[in-house]
Amino acid sequence: MTGAPLTLGVDGGATRCRARLRDADGKALIEASGAAANIHVDFAAAIAVLRAVVGEVMDKAGLTGADRARIAIGFGLAGIEDASDAARVVEAFPDYRLVRAANDAVTACIGAHAGADGGLVIAGTGSAAIARVKGRETIIGGRGFTLGDDGAGAHIGLDALRAAMRAFDRLGPASPLTADIIGRFDGDAVAMMRWARDARPGDFGAFAPGVFSRAAEGDRIALEIAARAAGAIGALTRGAVALGAERVALVGGAGEALRPYLEPEIAARLSAPLHDATDGAILMVGGVIAAQREAAQ
Fold this sequence. Notes:
alpha/beta
């Protein structure tokens, strides 16, 4: 490699962290991945993951500490709520040419519309919507597992676990879905309680695929959970549209799994993203994507 500028995009979510290095022409050079990097859940642990992923990219690319001066890093991170959160992340990565940090909803939206105005609904482990219109960014939702994340994988899993516990206690109906979950804990309600006490959003989200699998088979409880989550995604979509976002993209594993349960109007409104959140972080710090450059020529 020469001394030309490089851009590194990092997408740190509640489930995993991804990084991508591009050269000055927008060519993808190196990629790496790591564990969850949610600064709201554990700032120190998230920074450790980010440093490890950035370090892995640099090692794979044959870069050293002396190369930091030509690298711009864009971080899109779960848990960033305001400028002070972003500043703490930036301070943890000195000596680079440029470092910027934003909520992962922002970088995902930038990527989804290649930097143009638009809206985005994220439905992964957590959920949020964002509208980027005329230079203004407005985030809807994204308030974390306790106060938000409706329609996301974590709450889908939580709803399933709660339904299973009600079925166990004969306080609610049983179904194959609730039997699946109770069986995961060998029929031990205390074990389920102890697990839930220490579980993080991603742990609850791991139960979401089972909900969708049972919903596809017609399981009544699974269908109710999916419908409730789809309604939440619809509300986020309408919120972005109300703020002036004409094109709205949908990202996240839970979002795609929920498509069959969305209202037709909402499903038609939600498009596929042009680029992912990692490239959105690259665009945020002035990087380019090769496909874009070729299209412009």
